[in-house]
Structure formats: structure tokens, C-alpha cells
Amino acid sequence: MPVRIVQSKQNSRLKDLRRALAQPGRASQPLAAIEGPNLLAEALRAGLHLPCVFVALGSESLLDGLSLPANAEILLVPRELLDSALSTETPQPVAALVEPPQWSWPDILANRANAKSLIVVLAGLQDPGNLGTIVRSAEAFGATGLLCLPGTVSAWNPKSVRASAGSLFRLPLLTVTTEDCFTRLRQSGVKIWTTAVSGAEPANRIDLASSVALMIGNEGNGVPAELAAQANGAVTIPCPGPVESLNAAIATSILLYEASSQRAGALHE
């Protein structure tokens, strides 16, 4: 694999890295950026294409044992130069440019025999750490995919990528229009549940073992009324303690766990 030493911050690949970190998810930005040897290993295990890997001079051993493709470009960069391109407070000595996986609606919708869809719909979620945590929980509890509506932070925001701990590389995810989202879900027989604090059914009293989509709203304002009106019903998580609402990622994780538990129970009935 080609290995080069880079000494200038004007290097085109370093510019690509800065751009990918600053403008994640834009149509004009085909590459995403990841940081750290763990995410690099996860990306390789997921089979993502890595056009370029950056490693700080003196830290080359971090690449040992990684099955880097023969055509991956390896750039050795002075630590201070690499740090200046990265976005974390304590930058890691390894980063890479990756091609995000290309998913489609058939990937999101469970179309295997007897399979039931479990989809998370994010409606204006703004915190990238929450989004990444939701992606990780969605994979852990067997979700078939995740849909991002307009106004939702990019899943390839560096904080989202780190919080997902590699799940983003494997879980089908689409950014879709509101119209396409609800039309496709209805056509596929997926029941849509919007989350709500009050006036909703407790999660353990509704059927989450069938094909369902769980709609999660903005951290401060919840699901917009016009989107909630598109749902078949509203679901809530009863909280006996004096707490009005839960963090979006925690609430989603609890709902996904409930769905997973119901599905496991249905298999043993």
C-alpha cells in the first residue's frame, strides 16, 4: 500500500479530512471522517472503503494487525499537523476518510419471510451524541433501520460517529423527506408510534412485536404536532419518579428494549 510523509497543511487529503469533519453528510461531501484505531478497526470489519488513512509520525504501530486494503493511501503526518485537522479536544493519532455505506428502503424494511420491521424515525433530533447512542442501541436491540427526517443532525457528525461505536457502519440508515417516510411506511404496513409525555399508551401495553416505527422528536420540543398527527398512535414510558421526561437517547433505548423483549417473547409462545 502506498505510504507518504506529509508536512504541509495544504495537502489535498488533509483538506479532505477537514472538510469531512466540518461538513458531514452534505451531498457535495462524498467522504466521511473517523478518528481513532477502534473506529478504524470497526470500519474495516464492516467492509467500508477507506481511501486514505492518516497516522501521526511515531504511532505507526497502531496500524499493526489491521487488515488495511492494498489500495489504501497511508499518510504519515507530524502529530501537531494531524491534531490541527481533527475536531476532538484530545485528538487521536489515527484518522481515516471512509465512503459511507449506501443504503436503500429495502434495507430498512424487513422483507425476509416472517420478519417484522423495527424502525426508528428521528424528527429533528439535534444532539449528535444522542443520535450516535440511538444508532448503537438500535443495532443492539435488533432494529432493522433508522430514518432521519429534515432538521435532524447528520449521522456522520464526528460526535455521532464516536457515540455509535461502529454501529453506524452496519445499521441501515437513510435521510428521507417527510412525505417519502410516511408514504413508504404505510405502504409497507408499518404502524407508526409517536413518542409523547402525556396522553399516550404505556410502552408495555402496546404491540411492539409487529412491524412498527418509533418516532423520536427534538430534545427540547419533542415530535412536532404536524408529524405526530401522521402517526397511528402515541407511546410513552411511565416514570414513577418526579421526572417530566427522559433524555431522547435513553427513552429510545428503553422503547427498543421493550420491543426486543416483546419480540423475544413472541418467538417462544
Supply the key terms.
alpha/beta; 32% helix; 269 residues; Alpha/beta knot; seven-stranded parallel β-sheet; five-stranded mixed β-sheet; 2 domains; elongated
Can I get a quick summary?
It contains 9 helices and 12 strands.
Beta-strand fraction estimate: 15-25%
Residue windows where pLDDT falls under 50 for at least 5 positions: none
- Assign the CATH topology of the largest domain: Alpha/beta knot
Number of helices: 9
The radius of gyration computed from the alpha-carbon positions, rounded to a whole number of angstroms, is 20 Å
Average predicted local confidence, pLDDT: 91
Order of helices and strands: EHEHEEHEHEHEHEHEEEHEH
Domain module count? 2
How do the strands of the widest beta sheet line up side by side? 8-7-6-11-9-12-10
What coarse outline follows from CA principal-axis ratios?
A: elongated
Fourth CATH level, the homologous superfamily of the largest domain: SPOUT methyltransferase, trefoil knot domain
- The helicity comes to 25-40%
Report the top-level CATH class of the largest domain.
Alpha Beta
Assembly type:
single chain
What gap, in angstroms, lies between the N and C termini? 54 Å
